[in-house]
Amino acid sequence: MKTISTWFRHGTEAVAASFLAAMFITFLLQIFSRYVLKTPFGWTLELCLILWVWIVFFGCAFLVRENDHVTFDIFYLSAPRRVQKVLALISAAAIATGMLYAFLPTWDYIDWMKMRKTTTVRNPLDGNKIPMRTIFSIYAMFMLVVAARYIWRFVDVLRNGPPETDHELPGHDHEPPAIQEGDEVV
Q1: Residue closest to 135 by CA, chosen among 126, 146, 122
Q2: What secondary structure does DSSP assign to 30-42, as a single string?
């Protein structure tokens, strides 16, 4: 299972890096066309925006870990373990429920966007403008993945209890190194 997880993580990192590289190359092409050719390509700006939307939601769905988020957990960390478990269960259930509850209305709007198309970017395979539904479908995937992650977190908290803190990295020592005599303290 760990091998599959590692391969999946590396694959999603490669996809996100490819999106970022494509956006950077498109951005450089935009600068080149504007300042060297003196005739800016209109599609470069729109493609950069599309790639940015995909980078943000794809990355947040598949790459951003729980301990990468900014949290305000002073009360959570100062609470007893039983209260932490209840708070962790409530927050995981609330996020999963909210995402699942909002999914159908959100998908309805995304599906409605199929009638709108990109202004300048065309599908390289058939030459047609790209439907906005295709572009914003990544948000629907983001919602489902986040809901699944928090359902998994809910089950994990039920089985194993709440994490000591979301700031700890698995497999690392949590004790700070001991200060030896002669060490300089800054």
Answers
A1: 122
A2: HHHHHHTSSS--H
* CA dist., res. 63 & res. 54, Å (int): 13
CB of 157 closer than 8 Å to CB of 88: yes
What are the beta bridge partners of residue 117?
131
What pTM value is reported for the model? 0.81
pLDDT, one tens digit per residue, over 97-133 is 999 999 999 999 999 999 999 999 998 899 999 999 9
The answer to whether residue 17 scores a pLDDT higher than 80 is yes
- Residues 48-66: b if buried by 16+ CB within 10 A, e if exposed: bebbeebbbbbbebbeeee
Distance CA 140, CA 105 (A): 10
